[in-house]
Amino acid sequence: HYCICLLCESSLYCSVPEKPNLNTVKSMHYQIIEPCNIVRYLYLKGRRTVPKYELSSRIIDFGKVQIFSSSNKKIVLQNKGEIDLKIEDIISASEHYKFYDSGIDFPITLKAKNDIELHLLYTPNSLGHHSSQVEILISEPCRISEKIYVFGESIAGDSLSFKMHIPRITATLGEKVVIPINISVPQNISEQLFTLEKMSFDLCFNPTTFLPDRINLGNSIDESKIKSFNLIENIIGRANIDISFDSINELSSGVLVYVIGRTLLGNSFYTTLKPEKIQLFSNRIIDVEIEEGELEIIGNCLPKDRIIDMSRQTVLMIKNISRESAIFKINLISDDDACFIIYNNLGMEILKISDELQNFSNNELNIRFENFSSGIYYAVLINGNITRHVSFPVIK
Question: Edge-to-edge strands of the sheet including 293-298?
């Protein structure tokens, strides 16, 4: 707008004409009334300008970036006008994106017919897709906010390396044995945004030399974070160990679990202890190195060297089965303690007979199915150091 003001002794005069167009010449007049009537004309010339600038990109796709790393993208802001621009600040609406400050202090002035390079960083600290916007605030010659839309996806990147290993153990024949299953994890595991919801693996062994009974937790996992853990020997010689968590994000190197059982009078001096079918339900890719262990049994010998009468074998078999009951044929070879146990397919103990077998003379045992539901069951006979297994169905 044009404005002309005259300060006289008597009053202040100011006249404002209409808003001019671009590149126009306007005339205006002012009139002095006292002490005489004088009219004078002034010719005013002016030109309105608007800021002219250009961004090299208004949409930036950073693509896939590994978590805890960064990706740099350059934006060029070019001032094509005849007036200077004042950049007040650059603001990001997300913690994953930020302006890379290479010695530039805001506010900065972008001279006419010049340009400036601005660098944006995508530094993801969590997994997933991240979309946001970055604002460039221009304060002069007028207030303008330019938005740049940014997209990116963070990926896990390199896999984490774990190690599961079992030591060499020596135990006496017929006695209880505790087998530690150790796990080694990276030292910076808590900084890797690692989460774990479930772990499952099999422990393989010679079933004639070792009988697993239960597991206890080790020191590598906070017990308060565990929802459930169990051991099930669905296949003879292969015990499945299953552990569920409340989505833990910390795991220490140490003993994962202790497998507790006892040694048996088997067909060998020792058995290998090997973890297999390891499954870790995690948000990261995990490679597991396996180092198998060994259980050596002191007091055992080869069957051909045993000074005992092997003519009578410990026997467990099903003689007859119906919907109502089953008759098990049992033959005990040892005078040691004997125990007959039935498990369901979840590994839960359904029935246990021990005292009645101590003076067992009849070689048949009748088990009725009133309290059994339909499914597969497992019968286990333990006589001293000898164990026999048999599975059977119940149909109702």
Answer: 168-172, 293-298, 270-282, 196-204, 238-248, 226-235
pLDDT tier at 12, thresholds 50, 70, 90:
very low
Q: Kindly calculate the radius of gyration of the chain based on its CA atoms and give it in whole angstroms.
A: 42
The tens digit of pLDDT for each residue in 98-113 reads: 887 756 788 889 999 9
Helix (H) or strand (E) holding 355: helix 355-358
Distances (CA, A) of 254 to 12, 196, 349, 367, 388: 91, 17, 31, 44, 34
Give the whole-angstrom CA distance, residue 365 versus residue 319: 10
- Please, what's the b/e burial string for 127-165 (b: 16 or more CB within 10 A of its CB; e: otherwise)? beebebebebbbeeeeeeeeebebebbbebbeebebebe
C-alpha torsion angle, residues 256, 262, 268, 269 (rounded to 10): 80
Residue 221 CB neighbour total at 10 angstroms = 23
Residue 40 sits at the vertex; the CA angle it makes with 35 and 45, to the nearest 5 degrees, is 150
Closest to 86 (Cα-Cα) out of 133, 143, 47: 143
3-state percent helix, strand, coil for the chain, nearest multiple of 5? 5, 60, 35
Q: Does 202 score more than 90 pLDDT?
A: yes
Q: Which of 99, 270, 74 is nearest to 179 (CA)?
A: 270
Q: For residues 61 and 338, what is the distance between their CA atoms, to the nearest angstrom?
A: 71
Residue type, 370: E
Task: Please give the Cα distance from 221 to 149 (Å, whole number).
Answer: 43
Tokens of 117: 């390079």
Q: Encoding tokens for residue 144?
A: 């303008």
φ and ψ at 189, to 5 degrees? -60, -35
Beta carbons of 353 and 360 less than 8 angstroms apart: no
Cα separation, 19 vs 14, in Å, equals: 15
